[in-house]
Design brief:
The protein is of the alpha+beta class. Helix content is about 30%, strand content about 25%. The chain contains nine helices and 15 strands. A hairpin with a 2-residue loop joins β9 and β10.
């Protein structure tokens, strides 16, 4: 892990060194969706100079984030309040092959006439620079939007010497900032939405949420803790498949493990106080979860979302939280 200051220091290497810039498109062939490919995009010198500026703006956005100077950047959790975080590259299927096609001499060039055969996922900009005598690199990503092909749906024109002319249909534009960046083994970002869409990360949440449901009943619970008993795990998995929010909450529950430390007595009290009518057995210290338990109640309890203010004693249901160290 690295600190925010260490991450920002990479900007100086990009600006001050004779950086080498390459551009790619991360794509899927429409005949084999789900398989990521990389197309090398040839660029002239003016474009490469602009790409350096676009890359530097990402670091400017990182600089603006309020963050403890010496604190390490933490791994992403969708249930936490995080202004800057990382996701390890190992969770992306096919990533080693994708990265190899970016970091080596990729001769598979993008041809504009073939764009209709491709589903474009992201712009990719690789910036190589010197650190001492060693070559290092960062790889930045910007989610691709179909509207970037300006003339595909619009009649785009410009004036030249007072004469209105039509842009070529292959005209395309790029936003002036990148969405996330890969450095070493981790993707760094301020928001996760673009990353989730580019890499279909929702499947990762769903797989982990289903894994939690499979394993939750085999957990070893300490004395006095409530043991969860799921009557129909397949029914919950169907709900996970149709709800990314539920998948994210259960993924967070798996990562944090709060559900292993729920006091049975406190769960009884919560059920009475909020009239949840939970199926609790005091003899076996079990909570039976069946189709009568509302999904929101289930996810809130196992993810420890019922909170009480230390200042006002007000009680809340928390959507995001940050643990007080």
């Amino acid at each position: 892990m690295i600190t925010k200051a260490q991450l920002i220091s990479l900007k100086e290497h990009i600006v001050n060194s004779s950086s080498n810039v390459s551009m790619y498109l991360l794509v899927e062939d429409k005949n084999s969706l789900g398989t990521l490919k990389v197309k090398h995009v040839l660029c002239d010198g003016d474009v490469k100079a602009e790409l350096i500026d676009v890359s530097v703006r990402f670091f400017s956005m990182v600089s603006a984030v309020e963050f403890e100077g010496n604190a390490n950047i933490q791994e992403y959790n969708p249930d936490d309040e995080q202004d800057l975080f990382y996701i390890n590259k190992s969770i992306i299927n096919q990533w080693d092959d994708v990265q190899n096609r970016i970091t080596t001499d990729n001769q598979d060039y993008f041809e504009i006439d073939n764009r209709d055969n491709l589903k474009i996922k992201a712009w990719v900009v690789k910036v190589e620079f010197l650190v001492g005598n060693q070559t290092d690199n960062v790889i930045l990503f910007q989610e691709f939007q179909n509207a970037r092909f300006l003339a595909a749906k619009l009649l785009v024109m410009f004036f030249e010497r007072n004469v209105l002319k039509l842009f070529d249909k292959s005209i395309i534009n790029l936003s002036d900032s990148m969405d996330f960046m890969l450095y070493s083994d981790n993707f760094y970002m301020l928001k996760a939405k673009a990353f989730e869409r580019v890499f279909s990360y929702q499947d990762f949440y769903k797989d982990n949420a289903k894994s939690l449901i499979d394993n939750i009943q085999s957990e070893v619970y300490s004395a006095g803790m409530a043991k969860l008993v799921i009557v129909d795990s397949d029914a919950i998995k169907l709900k996970i498949e149709s709800s990314i929010r539920l998948a994210q909450k259960l993924y967070s529950a798996k990562v944090k493990g709060y559900y292993k430390n729920i006091s049975f007595k406190k769960l009884e009290s919560l059920s009475r106080q909020h009239k949840l009518d939970l199926k609790l057995d005091a003899n076996t210290k079990t909570w039976t979860i069946d189709d009568q338990v509302p999904t929101k109640v289930f996810e809130r309890i196992i993810n420890d979302d019922y909170e009480k203010s230390l200042l006002t004693d007000n009680e809340y249901i928390s959507k995001k939280k940050q643990l007080i160290e």
